């Protein structure tokens, strides 16, 4: 039956083709329906297209997982034809040239997926005529020959997937022209040669998968690819140097290559690294056990190298481990207890010289003499760790006498990993401020949805991981002369970096049982706190216990604020005072900082206890809210964003933002009055005075104002500021102004003051808006 159906149908199509003659030129005036039917014919009527015929309304048919046609305003923009299994190549008389010539009639295609259709031959250069293409996936066909370099003119491409074909030759060196590329995958082909340096320019790249080819030589420097999360280079002949990668990477697969030189020292700060697979290379030297306790790691494969070193039962490891393969190395000692526990489902360690505790000592293991001899043979003598300078030793573990030491491998089974990622597309690693994004229409196609979060980070240096050496150098070994003070969350030091800039370094001691999840999330939050009116985080650094490599201290590096707190310049003893304009500017800065915390980041942050002493001044007297004391740690620990703070001693928190508004009102009270306000009683008392004076005449009102500015502020701006202040301190939190209202009014106050100042007291109309009550 199917047979007759097909032949009938081909007759129809042939008829259609006769009516509209097709020549082998690039442009045809044939309808998109005819084009699709022609494609069906050129593919030899595959079963998955059996529902297509000359009456099919392609733009309005139900999509299936294997066949999808999507139109936008009647024009086809997406075509997916996906077979479930790799099929034999199409017959000898198939012509890829004719096929692509037909295909490029669909000029508006943005997404083209032709998977497992038996396509074969050299990819014609004219594929580049599909200039709107954003996603091209031609996995599991039989393409051969070179990848046409013309493909690099498809500058809208965001995802280029050529997996499981037989492409040969080099990757086009101009691949760097595809500047919007987010996913580049060419796994399992016969590509060879060096990887082009221009890969290092694809700054939007998130996923680079080139496994199972025949690439050789060093991999290009990828450290500028700040968005890169997945790097798979397994099954090539790359090496000997470990590729340079950005520190937020989550997955590195380098198995079956020729890597010999050590793992990079920065690996210790790869706090998002989940999977490291460096199996079957030629790594030699001591195995850096700190890798076992990296905060995010769940998959590690170092199988088949020549890592040496003494393991011990009480080493720490990440509790989230799912797979660890240490087999066929030269490890001695005992398998760490944390790996034996039932939680880690797959632990493989045979082919070493390890002993277990249960008496099955030699099962699958080699005699210890073997490892010793072999270690000598590869020129590495297991060294005894010195405990004297343990902090340095922890980091230096990575480099001994020019031979590398750190070997780590993670492997998350593709399936487990893949599923996880798909189920939770907005996973934390993906939600960060990335520079690439798919156009909204394509969201459903994008495997890796990215999200842009614009932050007001003008002029703030990039966030990065610091090395402990850098911080020790900056603080002269945390010398007491650099000690700035101790807050509830740890000590603060002042440091001077190599480039001459000053930083504030907060040191947090970690309890041994501090869950790694806790502080990685803390760091994540901190790294998002970057704004002109926040004391922004510049980076962090871990210090590890030498004995079990768990994190002992966490250093957070912040901007340094040379002018101290706002109070010092208002009511403090600096002997100097801020002018009225400067005070208004400071107030505006604080509100902008609050606004950013409330609306500029996710999760939103509500301080809950903002004080004037948390407002610091930079060299230009710009106000910035200090981030040291924000309730981030509590937030993380309690896993709730509102639950943690002040619920006990304040009103029920249905509008947490209005608590910050109140606290801002208290700061404003001090800014205006010039008196230090330290107790709730003082707040109430001053507030009442304010309210009564405001109802009286201007003269009485001015008595409330700091003497040093009393004669230098215009009435209208003063009234506005006092009204804002009053509004913020209202008892009913619903009546307090919104952050936007405050900002509007403060900016108004600044303008009138400026006009007054430049016009020497010229009157200003009082068309100032009332504070809206909501
Ligand atoms: C579709 O094919 C049938 C059978 O050959 C033919 O009668 C009909 O005219 C065709 N319709 C169109 C729209 O081409
Ligand atoms: C195709 O032909 C029709 C009628 O001949 C014409 O109106 C239309 O503009 C042509 N389209 C293109 C893309 O040439
Ligand atoms: C075209 O296909 C539809 C369903 O796929 C079928 O119902 C219809 O009978 C077919 N039309 C022709 C003319 O074969
Ligand atoms: C390419 O398409 C196939 C079929 O939809 C899919 O399974 C595969 O994951 C895609 N490849 C990439 C890298 O997106
Ligand atoms: C791939 O192409 C090479 C060179 O053209 C050829 O030798 C090899 O057999 C092909 N491999 C497959 C799996 O088709
Ligand atoms: C690579 O492709 C070949 C031929 O299509 C297939 O047999 C093999 O399983 C693939 N290898 C991997 C690792 O996917
Ligand atoms: C891989 O490339 C090397 C040269 O770099 C060559 O000697 C070797 O034959 C290639 N292997 C395959 C399977 O093509
Ligand atoms: C030794 O290994 C066996 C099998 O893996 C296990 O059942 C047994 O508990 C182990 N310990 C001893 C002391 O035999």
Automatic annotation (TrEMBL):
Q: GO CC terms on record?
A: membrane
Which molecular function term from Gene Ontology is one that the record holds?
Answer: protein kinase activity
**Please, which domain of life does this record's source organism belong to?**
Eukaryota
Name the UniProt key words of this record, in alphabetical order.
Answer: Glycoprotein, Leucine-rich repeat, Membrane, Receptor, Repeat, Signal, Transmembrane, Transmembrane helix
Q: Where in the cell is it found?
A: Membrane
Q: What PROSITE patterns does the record point to?
A: PROTEIN_KINASE_DOM (PS50011)
Entry protein name: Protein kinase domain-containing protein
Q: Where is the signal peptide?
A: 1-24
How is the protein disposed in the membrane? Single-pass type I membrane protein
**UniProt record, GO biological process:** regulation of innate immune response
Gene3D superfamilies, per this entry?
Phosphorylase Kinase, domain 1, Ribonuclease Inhibitor, Transferase(Phosphotransferase) domain 1
Task: Give the residue spans that cross the bilayer.
Answer: 393-413
Q: Where is the Protein kinase domain?
A: 478-748
Tell me what organism the protein belongs to.
Lactuca sativa (Garden lettuce)
Q: Which SUPFAM superfamilies match?
A: L domain-like, Protein kinase-like (PK-like)
């Amino acid at each position: 039956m199917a047979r007759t159906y097909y032949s009938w149908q081909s007759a129809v199509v042939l008829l259609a083709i006769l009516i509209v003659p097709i020549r082998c030129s690039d442009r045809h005036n044939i309808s998109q329906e005819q084009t699709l039917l022609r494609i069906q014919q050129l593919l030899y009527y595959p079963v998955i297209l059996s529902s297509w015929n000359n009456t099919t309304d392609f733009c309005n048919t139900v999509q299936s997982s294997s066949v999808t046609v999507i139109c936008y305003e009647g024009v086809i923009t997406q075509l997916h034809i996906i077979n479930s299994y790799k099929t034999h190549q199409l017959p000898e008389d198939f012509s890829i040239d004719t096929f692509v010539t037909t295909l490029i009639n669909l000029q508006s295609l943005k997404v083209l997926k032709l998977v497992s259709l038996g396509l074969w031959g050299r990819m014609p250069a004219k594929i580049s005529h599909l200039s709107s293409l954003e996603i091209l996936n031609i996995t599991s066909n039989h393409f051969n020959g070179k990848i046409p370099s013309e493909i690099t003119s498809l500058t809208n491409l965001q995802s280029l997937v050529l997996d499981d074909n037989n492409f040969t030759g080099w990757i086009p060196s101009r691949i760097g022209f595809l500047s919007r590329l987010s996913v580049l995958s060419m796994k399992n082909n016969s590509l060879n040669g060096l990887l082009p340096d221009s890969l290092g320019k694809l700054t939007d790249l998130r996923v680079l998968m080139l496994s199972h080819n025949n690439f050789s030589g060093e991999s290009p420097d990828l450290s500028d690819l700040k968005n890169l999360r997945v790097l798979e280079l397994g099954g090539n002949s790359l090496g000997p140097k470990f590729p340079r990668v950005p520190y937020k990477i989550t997955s590195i697969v380098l198995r079956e290559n020729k890597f010999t030189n050590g793992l990079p020292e920065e690996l210790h700060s790869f706090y998002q690294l989940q999977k490291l697979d460096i199996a079957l290379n030629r790594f030699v030297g001591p195995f850096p056990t700190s890798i076992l306790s990296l905060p995010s790691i769940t998959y590690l494969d170092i199988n088949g190298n020549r890592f040496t070193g003494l393991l011990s039962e009480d080493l720490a490891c990440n509790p989230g481990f799912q797979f660890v393969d240490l087999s066929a190395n030269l490890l001695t000692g005992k398998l760490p207890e944390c790996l034996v526990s039932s939680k880690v489902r797959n632990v493989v360690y045979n082919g070493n010289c390890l002993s277990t505790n249960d008496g099955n000592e030699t099962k699958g293991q080699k005699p210890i003499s073997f490892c010793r001899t072999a270690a000598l043979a590869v020129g590495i003598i297991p060294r005894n760790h010195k405990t004297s300078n343990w902090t340095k030793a922890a980091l230096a573990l990575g480099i001994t006498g020019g031979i590398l030491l750190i070997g780590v491998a993670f492997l998350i089974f593709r399936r487990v990993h893949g599923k996880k990622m798909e189920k939770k597309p907005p996973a934390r690693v993906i939600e960060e401020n990335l520079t690439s994004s798919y156009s909204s229409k394509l969201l459903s196609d994008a495997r890796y949805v990215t999200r842009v979060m614009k932050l007001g980070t003008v002029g703030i240096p990039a966030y990065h991981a610091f090395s402990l050496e850098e911080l020790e150098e900056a603080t002269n070994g945390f010398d007491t002369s650099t000690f700035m003070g101790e807050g509830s969350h740890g000590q603060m030091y002042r440091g001077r970096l190599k480039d001459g800039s000053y930083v504030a370094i907060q040191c947090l001691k970690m309890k041994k049982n501090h869950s790694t999840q806790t502080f990685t999330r803390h760091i994540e939050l901190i790294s998002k706190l970057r704004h002109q009116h926040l004391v922004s985080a510049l980076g962090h650094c871990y210090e590890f216990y030498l004995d079990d490599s768990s994190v002992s201290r966490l250093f957070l590096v912040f901007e340094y604020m040379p002018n101290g707190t706002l109070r010092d310049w208002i009511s403090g003893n600096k002997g100097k005072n801020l002018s009225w304009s400067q005070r208004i500017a400071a107030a505006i800065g604080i509100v902008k900082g609050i606004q950013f915390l409330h609306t500029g980041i996710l999760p939103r942050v509500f301080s809950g206890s903002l004080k004037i002493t948390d407002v610091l001044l930079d060299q230009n007297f710009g106000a910035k809210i200090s981030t040291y004391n924000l309730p981030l740690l509590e937030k993380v620990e309690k896993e709730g964003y509102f639950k943690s703070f002040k619920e006990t001693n304040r009103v029920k928190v249905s509008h947490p933002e209005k608590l910050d508004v109140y606290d801002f009102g208290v700061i404003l009270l001090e800014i205006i009055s010039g008196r230090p306000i330290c107790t709730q009683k003082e707040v109430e008392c001053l507030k009442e005075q304010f309210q009564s004076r405001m109802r009286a005449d201007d003269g009485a009102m001015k008595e409330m104002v700091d003497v040093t500015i009393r004669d230098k502020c215009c009435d209208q701006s003063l009234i506005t500021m006092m009204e804002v202040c009053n509004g913020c301190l209202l008892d009913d939190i619903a009546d307090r102004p919104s952050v936007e209202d405050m900002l509007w009014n403060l900016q108004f106050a600044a303008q009138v003051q400026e006009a007054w100042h430049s016009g020497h007291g010229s009157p200003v109309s009082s068309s100032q808006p009332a504070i809206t009550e909501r």
